[in-house]
Amino acid sequence: MNPSARPKKTALLVAERIVEDIHRRGNQAGDKLPPERVMLEEYDVGRGTLRESLRFLELQGVLTLKPGPSGGPIVQHPDPGALTTSLRLLLQFQQAPFQTVIEARVALEPSMARLAAERMDEEEAKELAEVVRVEREQLNDQSAFRAQTREFHMRIAQGSGNAIFGMLFTALFDILDGNGSGVDYPLKQRKLTVDIHEAIATAIAAGDREEAERLMKEQMLALLTFLKKRHSRMLTEPITWKD
After folding, report:
1. Where's the HTH gntR-type domain (predicted)?
2. What is the per-residue pLDDT across 152-184, written as a single tens digit (0 to 9) for each?
3. Which of 43, 70, 130, 199 has a CA between 20 and 30 Å from the CA of residue 10?
4. Are residue 125 and residue 196 in the same domain, yes or no?
């Protein structure tokens, strides 16, 4: 054991037990947890400790605390956006610039595309192609185009069959897209993006792992080159926690 490691607070230990019990009981979003008096007896802690545990789980998006006599803790599905918030906070304390996010995407997304080519079924591949079709239709609407681009990469991250990839992509994309980064993609860049997205979708539908990986790496490197040329100042700015 690391001698410098601090023991976990009782409230955190209780929070872990509450989550274990939620899974053991098979609770779903919207289910109410037992009343406070029952939980106090079950976890053998004081009211202050239990409430601290519940507030912690509320901050993590596991529960919502409904006030009133008929209220109490209600199970929720954790919001993936919590990872974005936590990662942004950690990166601010590391004084990490926005370029860090792009470099991470360059490293990760080709692997996502390779796995997607291996694991996405025919229906998922058709849905990905449809995303590209709509993306092309929205070339002249930068806001709609950006949303469709996010959907394209998200489908691939989810299609990789690796939950961590899906969560990481959401966090990385939203960090870059948020914080007032002000990235503007001219029409020429948007057309190039759709063209390579179409090629990636075709490679994934064909199950061509090497080609899907190569094309995604090409797109990510092209994105990095574009941002260095057009938004070099933004890339060097430190990531901040606040939107």
Report:
1. 8-78
2. 999 999 999 999 998 998 888 888 775 445 577
3. 70
4. yes
Say what the pTM is. Answer: 0.81
Q: For residue 107, what are the domain limits?
A: 81-236
SS (H, E, C) the chain: CCCCCCCCCHHHHHHHHHHHHHHHHCCCCCCECCCHHHHHHHHCCCHHHHHHHHHHHHHCCCEEEECCCCCEEEECCCCCHHHHHHHHHHHHHCCCECHHHHHHHHHHHHHHHHHHHHHCCHHHHHHHHHHHHHHHHCCCCHHHHHHHHHHHHHHHHHHCCCHHHHHHHHHHHHHHHCCCCCCCCCHHHHHHHHHHHHHHHHHHHCCCHHHHHHHHHHHHHHHHHHHHHHCHHHHHCECCCCC
Question: Which CATH number is 158's domain given?
Answer: 1.20.120.530
